[in-house]
Each structure stands twice: as C-alpha cells, then as structure tokens.
Design brief:
Length: 244
C-alpha cells in the first residue's frame, strides 16, 4: 500500500483567549481524500480548531502546515485559496448580488477573468437550482439558499481542502436536508474535508474518520463504525448516550 499523503499537519496547537485556554495541545493529520468529522460538546474548541487552521484565529502555540509548508503571515493569502471554508452564518457580502459574491475572489485574486468566473458561477448555480437567484441580494434568500451559495462560493476557488464549521446549525429543519445533500455531493466528488457538525446521522454517513474534541484536546478518534458502536473512552460513551 502506498503511504498516505498528509495535506494538513497540526502539531502542538494551543489557543487561549486571555486566561481562557480553548485548545490545550492538538496533534492532527488530515490525509488526502479524507472526510474527517469533528464532534464534541459546545465550547470544546471544535470551531476554534478549524479557524486556527486557516489563521482566522492566530494560534497561541504550535505549528500548522499545508503540504509540508508552514502556514504563516507571508503565505496565508495563498494558503486560504487552497483551504476553503464554509461558515455557520454564511458570511455572504450583503451589498453584493449572488453572482458578485461568487465571482469577487477568483477575479480579484486573478484566478479567472470575469467572463470565466461568471460562466463557472452560472454552471454551479444551475446545478444547485439557484440560477434564477444570480442577481438577487443575500437578504432575499432563505437560510438554506444562503448556505448553498456559500458552499458554491468556496468551490469557485477550486480549493484542495474544504473546512465546514457547523454548516447547518443556523438553518431551519426544512433547509438542512438540501445543504447536507450538497455537502454529500462535494465529498463524494473527492474533496478532502473537515466538518464540524452536530448532525450525528450525517456524521455516520459521510465520515471516513471521526475526531472527538473535549476540553481543547482530541480525546478519541476512529472509524465511524468503531466510534459510534464501540467508543473507547468513558467521555465519548457519555457524550453518545446524550446525543443518540
């Protein structure tokens, strides 16, 4: 078997906000093609972990590498083009249309001409059934529509890795299915992903590996079948008893 290639490597990651130690020492490898789902109680550090990977939060200590290159102030903009992120609250730009939201980054960063970007955006919007919303502003969209546009916006940059930070937690129940379906499709097409979620059934279906964070550190990890059926630690057993 060929050796798996680590795309993202995290060593000794710590993050504190003043006296509040949110991450207390995380070592983690994301391998090419993996679909890692991160679970844990609220306040455990899951979202902070994701935000540190693409330096939306500055780590207090530790090193994060993308394809063996340390992510630092000099290369962060380049790295963010390769590590896409989908946020809990969409983060669409309110005074730009859907089309403008999708084309802004690829054109500004000279990844595509405006014509190329609009052509790609139209194709993606058509695929998710929102082509008719091209000239609409985000305020006119439902939560589910906003999140699907946000996912497409991340795909416009053709990243090598996608980070999803609780992508359904701000949605009404009717919208969740559409968003999860689109994420499923993205993952099935081979995208390397880390997904923070509270959707347990989705986690079972989509993950190639489950990582459980509590108290700012990784407590347990394993395959979905092993994690959900045969948890190794009392903390994970306790968590699963409450959420399943």
């Amino acid at each position: 078997m060929p050796e798996r290639r680590s795309v993202i490597t995290v060593r000794g990651l710590k993050k504190a906000f003043g006296d509040n130690k949110v991450l207390t020492g995380i070592d983690f490898d994301l391998f090419e093609g993996e679909k890692v789902v991160v679970l844990g109680p609220s306040g455990s550090g899951k979202s902070t972990f994701l935000r540190c990977i693409n330096r939306l939060e500055e780590p207090t200590a530790g090193e994060i590498c993308f394809e063996d290159i340390a992510i630092d102030d000099k290369n962060i903009q380049e790295m963010r083009q390769k590590i896409g992120m989908v946020f809990q609250h969409f983060n669409l730009i309110s005074n730009l249309t859907v089309m403008e939201n999708l084309t802004l980054a690829p054109v500004k960063l000279k990844r595509m001409t405006l014509d190329e970007a609009e052509r790609k955006a139209r194709g993606l919007l058509k695929h998710i059934g929102l082509l008719a919303k091209s000239d609409s502003f985000p305020a006119s969209l439902s939560g589910g529509q906003k999140q699907r546009v946000a996912i497409v916006r991340a795909l416009m940059m053709e990243p090598k890795v996608l980070l999803f930070d609780e992508p359904t937690s701000a949605l009404d129940p009717e919208s969740i299915g559409d968003v999860l379906s689109l994420i499923h499709e993205v993952v099935d097409n081979g995208m390397t992903t880390i997904i923070v979620t509270h959707e347990m059934n989705f986690a079972k279906e989509i993950a190639s590996r489950v990582v459980f964070i509590d108290g700012g550190k990784i407590v347990e990890e394993g395959t979905p079948s092993g994690f959900f059926s045969h948890p190794k630690t009392p903390r994970v057993k306790e968590f699963l008893e409450k959420v399943l």
